[in-house]
Amino acid sequence: MLEWLLILPALVACWMIQNHYLRRVSRASPIAPRFLALSRRTRARARAATLASAVTCAGAMVFALARPQAIVTTRDAQFERQDLIIVLDRSVSMRARDIAPSRLVRATSEIRNFLRHRPDAIDRVALVGFADSALVLSYPTADMGSLFFYLDWIDDDESPLFGTNMGGALIKALTLAEEDQRKTPKLFLLISDGEDLGAELDTALDMLRAARVRVHCIGIGSGAPVPIPVHTSGSRESLLLGDGNRPIMTRVSESTLRRIAETTGGRYVRSSSGSEMAAAISAIVQGERKLVGWKTTTDYRDLYDAGLAAALVAGAALWLIL
After folding, report:
1. Would the pLDDT of 196 be above 90?
2. Rounded Cα distance, 22 and 178, in Å
3. Distances (CA, A) of 267 to 50, 55, 262, 287
4. Among residues 168, 159, 180, which one has the least CA distance to residue 130?
5. Is the pLDDT of residue 274 over 90?
6. CATH C-level class of 77-295
7. Where are the domains of the chain?
8. pLDDT at 36
9. Would you list the DSSP string of 253-315?
């Protein structure tokens, strides 16, 4: 296509012939000075502008036809792949509604939001639910649809689960990580309102320290005490009652979650409205990433659109001049 650049000398030659002809006509038929202001003859400045516009338009069109490309090199950071183990509190106190629609439902919703946009550094995700006892709901998997299924099941299950054994849940999560055949680094995330009624927390912390595992904690709930709604079979919703038929109140207990995070070297984040939980999970994951190298990629970017734009502008200028 660059052979078409030969049209530029042809344009210049035609312009020179025309310019020579116009000069001869101007000398043969001069205009009286008093009529110069009314003359429509082409001036030398306009003829030069015509040449510049025509050459620019033709050159830009040839430039676009040649399909030039620019080499663009980018460097992307490569991070170590990690597995995320989410330890989710399912105890009855997580049904409190100081955060709409409830602490538990809001937590599962924010977990979904994070999983939909999880960073590339997270390879697989596991889910452990706990109340008085812990249960592995999903072993480490890259299938987010499977995790969404269990999160939906948690939302739909209205059975009241009494008791909160954080120590047992952490031991179950640690066992899950140690028994995994893929020795991918594990990232532990505990989501709870902080109430712990178990007796295994000290043992769990000793095991986590020995394994050099950091546990990051997110406490969900407002600071004010609130009642706990429960559903019993064949009845409508009612409040959980204690001695004297008075409603049992629950509030976030940050001390236990802070202790777990500080003892294991993790981070503690408070989620008082629930809306900041997905961002908190992302921040924790981002902070745990380990840079292992850089990936350099080379791409080619077309430049023909710049040539077409220049040809359009020059063609418009030529049309206005003529």
Report:
1. no
2. 92
3. 70, 66, 7, 10
4. 168
5. no
6. alpha beta
7. 2-68+304-321, 77-295
8. 63
9. -HHHHHHHHHHHT--EEEESSSTTHHHHHHHHHHHT--EEEEEEEEEEEE-HHHHHHHHHHHH
